[in-house]
Model the fold of this input.
Amino acid sequence: MRILIIDDEVDVAGLLARAVEEQGHETTLVYDGETALSRLKDLRPDAVFLDVRLPGLSGIEVLRKIRAVDPDLPVILITGHALTQELEEARRLNVTDIVEKLYVLSHLTEALGRFNAGPRDRSADDPS
Done:
């Protein structure tokens, strides 16, 4: 699976990427929401790990924009300091899962299990 990791904390993103890669998946790291959105179509990930707190666009804003173009893309929100209203909005936007940043590595296998077993058929995602 191709997994996009969006987190402004370089050390956290790197640890998560290594753990995901050890389970046999490809990762791409992006450190802000604007860059992630501009590269999303080219990257065509099978799933996304998305931090709530990002510079510029928040994780919730990024999730909203992802849902506008791909309502079925699995997205796991990772958070250390999310507000209740942010979590409620993420659920309303049909986030796949929400995992506390402190526990993301210990729950990685479970979180990845929420994604499809194999790559998604992305042919239907091309709006052209």
